[in-house]
Amino acid sequence: MTAPFGSVAQALWLALPVTLAGLTHVLAIARDVLPSLAAIRLDGGLELRGRPLFGANKTLRGAIVMIAATVVWTVVFDRLQRGLGLDDSIRFIARERLGSIGLGLVLGVAYILGELPNSFVKRQLDIAPGAAAGGGLRRLFWAVDQLDSAIAIVLVIGCFRAPPLGLVLTLLAVTLAVHPIVAALMVALGLKRRIG
After folding, report:
1. What per-residue confidence (pLDDT) applies to 1?
2. How many CB atoms sit inside 10 A of residue 87's CB?
């Protein structure tokens, strides 16, 4: 066993399964995995004021792939952590409180739910899925697009253990670095029109 890990290592440990799940989702889109689920919108086609609740980009395939992949990657990282003999503190939430599958579910569901309020607001402002906001809202929505799911994850893990400020800031910094990289990959693959 090594000495207990600090917030940076814990933040990376929490971020990696979700990041790899995001890349798994990119691969699922590129390979058109589960196409019938890609046609099922999370908002069920419901509208408010003549506008979709979340839009066509929030699909059942996306939710299922992100949640399932986050579970798989969390289990992989848990096994890796134990196999390398790393101190359990790297996990941040003790395995006794939340097993590998449970933590993966929590992280995956938080990620998906974290994206929905932003999508809802953008649809109500007539910003098309995948399009940038105009004018003064552009920078605000860019920041929210990068951080919405990370903030949801912080809120959800806070239900199990209060995260220290260092962990929160590191998670947000990792998200700001990784999210545009994944978006750039999607643009390169023709799956998305813009990075930011």
Report:
1. 36
2. 13
